[in-house]
Amino acid sequence: MDATPPRPPRWERRKDARPGELLDAALDLFVERGYSATRLDDVAARAGVSKGTLYLYYPSKEDLFKAVVRQNIVPLIEAFQRDVAQSSAPSAQLLGEFFRQWWSCFGATRLAGIAKLVVGEAGNFPELARFFQHEVVLPNATLLGSIVERGVRQGEFREVDVDACIHLWMSPMVMRAIWEHSILPCCPPALDMPIERFLAAHLEYVLGALAPRPEAPAARHGS
Asked: C-alpha distances in angstroms, 125 versus 10, 14, 139, 164?
């Protein structure tokens, strides 16, 4: 006798898949059009459902946007937080992995379009900016800061102003991601720097700022 359970009817599988399909459609449209220009009618149409069905899952466009961020971006940060907590690698290596993973999972993907959206529309939608700050920016900054503080405790790095360094080090990364999704397609090839060179130079700059400084020689007293 075949003990394999029967597959659920197609409509049941479709219902289970709807939230993910709606979020995927919403992500595409938010990145393509921005927050203000994205209409819930268009999200529903791209996902292949009625607008009424969309409202069953996400009562407003703000709810939909927050769900997109929580589904696609927050888990990336949480996964790397776990990796860092379990790692025994040198802190310099973890910093390199942090910047490379940030780029490969966020900066080089359509998710960077969400950062562009928030920067461009924060003035009109401050609640979305506050949400993004709380759910994405602050956890990411805390993670980066924890790697630096670990290196300081272990004697790998010198003491620095961690909060200031986080701003200095993340700003070029975010700007590069926004550049990729806005200005770069309109620029001549000569203005494009390969991301490998960018990341290597950025990491060299970061590690140079953290390198322990040699102790000054003790002053000699005259006889």
From this structure: 39, 33, 21, 27
Reported confidence tier of residue 187, pLDDT bands at 50, 70, 90? confident
Distance CA 48, CA 21 (A): 9
7: helix, strand or coil: coil
3-state DSSP assignment of residue 97? helix
In whole angstroms, give the CA distance from residue 193 to residue 26.
31
pTM: 0.85
Count of other CB atoms within 10 angstroms of residue 14: 13
**C-alpha neighbours within 13 Å on the C-beta side of residue 73:** 28
What tokens appear for 98 in the block?
Answer: 């942090």
Token pair of 190, please? 């000569």
Q: Are the C-beta atoms of residues 111 and 24 closer than 8 Å to each other?
A: no
**pLDDT per residue as tens digits for the range 33-57:** 999 999 999 999 999 999 999 999 9
What is the reported pLDDT for 112? 94
Q: Which of 7-16, 22-31, 141-150, 175-184 has the lowest mean pLDDT?
A: 7-16
- Report how far residue 122's alpha carbon sits from residue 34's, in angstroms, rounded to the nearest whole number: 11
Hey, what domains does the chain have and what are their CATH numbers?
A: 14-59 (1.10.10.60), 72-210 (1.10.357)
With vertex at residue 213, the alpha carbon angle to CA 211 and CA 218, rounded to the nearest 5 degrees, is 165
**Contact of 90 with 156, CB cutoff 8 Å:** yes
